[in-house]
Structure formats: C-alpha cells, structure tokens
Write a structure and sequence with these properties.
Length: 394
C-alpha cells in the first residue's frame, strides 16, 4: 500500500508502524531513586562534589558520568538508506534503529542526533560543541563528498573516536567476506583484480581498505566510467583515488574493466547486463550490495561466480554494517581510545574472518548478524590493536 493512502489509524494497525510508534528506544536509570537519601546522592547536594572532582581532574568524567559508554549517532539526513536527501526529521527512524543495534549487538548506549543543516562548517562546529557529552561520534547517512571532509575535520579536532559507518562499516565487512571468499577459492587477496562500481562514500572506503589489505589491483568506477588520472572531471577525492588505484590502466567503461576481473563490487544503483557478468574470470566473486535491488541479481550472479554476496538479509552472505560498528565502538570505548585507526579497522575485519573459520563455504563467507560471537570478537580485536598502536588510554 502506498504511504500516502494510509491514514493514521490504518498505519497504527500495521505491524510495521505499530513497532515504530512512539520510537524504538528510551532512556533508563541505572541507579535507584526511592527516597530523599537517594535523591540527595543522585542530585543536589551530593552531585556537586562529583562535579568539583571532575573540574579538578577532568579525566574523571569517564568514571563518574555516562560519557565513556555513549556514542552520538549524527546525521543531516542527506543520504538515508537508498532514499537520498529526506531531511533530518525523516531520518530519525533510521537513527533510532542504529541506536537499537548499538545496544543489542555491542552493549553500547547511543543517542540519535539529526541536525537541521547541510553546511559542512556548521555540522563540524556543532559536533565539536556536543562532543564533551560523548565517548565517540558515529557519523551516519551524510552524503558524499561532504562526508569525507566532515569526518577528516572531526578526527583532527577531537580526541574521541569518529567513525563514518557508511564508509568504514561497509569496508570492514566487505574485506572480511572477501578474505574468506579468496581463501575458499585457494587464493589470497594479492592474487585478485577487483572492479568497484560506485565512487561514493562506501565505494571509496571499500577500495581503500582492500588496498591496505593488499589486493592485487582494483579499479574504481563512477557513472562516467573508470576513475583515472586522465579525466578532467574528477573531484579531489577521486583524484586521490586515481593515484592509488587501477595499476592495469583502464580508461574506459566499467564493463571494459570487468572482462577477466576476479571480483565485482557493487556500491551503486547501476545495473549490470548478464552479458557483462559472463565476462568475469572463472571462480569470480560478486558482491552486489545495492539495496533493495542488487546491481546483479543473485540468481544471475550464481551462474558465473563462485561466491555471491549482497546487502540483503534474504540471501546468503549479507554484507551488513551491524557486523562491524557495535564491536568497533565497544572495543574502542573499553580502552578509551582516542581514535579509530586503519589498523583497528583491519583488526575488526580479521576478527570477522576468524569467526567463520574452517566453516567457510560458498554461502558462508561472513557470519550471521545474530551470531553471538561477532560483537565480542570484534571488540576484543579492536581493543588489542588500539593498545598496540598507542591510542588506548587504559
């Protein structure tokens, strides 16, 4: 039924709207408030002593407030799911859902914050001013290329983890799945040539993490074809990507680069003809992650690829960010990390790989989001790496 034909009453009668009615999260007390003694400890006059202690020793804020156990989920509503720029209010159901996932899969408290601005300077300034209340910042559904500058500036300005999940959550999970897929086919990442469709936030991040992990070669494509240094229409981000990708030197369409490629990664809405899918190398891997309609339907992909993954929950091998971000933040918060490093992201991907272990199969290169081992494994790996890289404070 179309949204515009539903009345308030009929919406409330559906399971979907009924679940969302009143919101999906709430705040709960962690201490009792039964009498005047409790009140005097939790609030005035007792709370003043705690305030003065923190004033004298600022780091005590992490011990005597919720700061180190809560993340701000920040959006401007410009790139929500596949819906695009729907505005801050319409983004709130997704931000609440993110908070729900943080708590369920990582034991992390979080607060949805939807900002009524698209201005990069205003977003950066607002988050910096909010940061004293939080142990980490999760940027969510902010459109590219603005999201790159916002994240970079916040990382430079703050001493708490800043993580744009649309970029790095996707990248971590995709890398984990690809490492297992390569192992299944008797290869390493260094043996593979990949093509990425989509040069937005996720496409750039996936490309970068695969390069960091040692993939043999990777070509990045946007709507105008392969990103390469000879193009005069590249943004600054795409120019930097042209310098580190495409060793083979493709200059044409993505279809040209797909001929003989070992891996196709879809992070756009662009459809791929079956004739072009057929030109991939034997034992290929297809990660078609557009939602809800993959660039290559799994039924078609399976005719030509050994391993097929999508972003959907109704097919095997779902590349779902929830496999990454709860554990990443849990691990970072546990050691009071000052940042989330590239090494911590790689550690998270390796932990996801290890959860699958020897059970790896064509339809099992990445764990289920409901596998209880995932969150603790990722958190432990991230925390250990933070200590090894010197960004942990406890």
């Amino acid at each position: 039924m179309a949204v515009e034909t539903l009345t308030m009453t009929s919406r409330d009668d559906t399971p979907l709207y009924s679940l969302h009615k009143g919101g999906k999260i709430e705040m709960a007390s962690t201490v009792p408030l039964r009498n005047r003694d409790d009140l005097s400890l939790a609030y005035t006059p007792g709370v003043a002593e705690v305030c003065l202690a923190i004033e004298a020793e600022p780091d005590l804020v992490n011990d005597y407030t919720w700061k180190n156990s809560v993340v701000a989920v920040v959006t401007d509503g410009t790139a929500v799911l596949g819906l695009g720029d729907i505005g801050p209010e319409a983004s709130l159901p997704v931000m609440e859902g993110k908070a729900l996932l943080f708590k369920q899969f990582g034991g992390v408290n979080s607060v949805p914050i939807a900002l009524a601005t698209k201005d990069v300077d205003e977003i950066v300034d607002t988050v910096i001013r909010l940061a004293p209340s939080f142990g980490g910042i999760n940027l969510e559904d902010i459109s590219a290329p603005r999201c790159f500058e916002i994240e970079d500036r916040l990382k430079a300005a703050l001493d708490i983890p800043v993580f744009h999940d649309d970029q790095h959550g996707t990248a971590i999970v995709a890398l984990a799945a690809m490492k297992n897929a390569a192992r299944l086919t008797g290869r390493s990442l260094g043996d593979l040539r990949a093509v990425v469709s989509g040069a937005g936030a996720a496409g750039v991040a996936v490309t970068k993490i695969l390069l960091e992990a040692g993939i043999g070669d990777i070509a990045l494509a946007d709507s105008k074809g392969i990103v390469h240094g000879g193009r005069g229409d590249l943004t600054s981000i795409k120019k930097s990507m042209a310098e580190i990708t495409n060793k083979t030197g493709y200059t044409g369409s993505i279809e040209d680069a797909m001929i003989g490629a070992d891996v196709y990664i879809g992070l756009s809405a662009g459809k791929v003809d079956e004739a072009d899918v057929a030109k991939l190398a034997p034992e290929a891997m297809i990660f078609a992650m557009a939602n809800p309609d993959p660039e290559i339907h799994p039924d078609v992909a399976r005719r030509y690829a050994r391993v097929v993954a999508t972003g959907r929950s109704d097919f095997p091998n779902q590349i779902n960010n929830v496999l990454a971000f709860p554990g990443v933040f849990r691990g970072a918060l546990d050691v009071r990390a000052s940042a989330i490093t590239e090494g911590m992201k790689l550690a998270a991907a390796n932990a996801l790989c290890d959860v699958v272990g020897d059970d790896v199969a064509e339809e099992y290169v990445i764990p289920s989001v409901f596998d209880p081992r995932v969150g603790p494994a990722v958190a432990a790996a991230v925390a250990e790496c933070a200590r090894a890289e010197g960004v942990a404070r406890i």
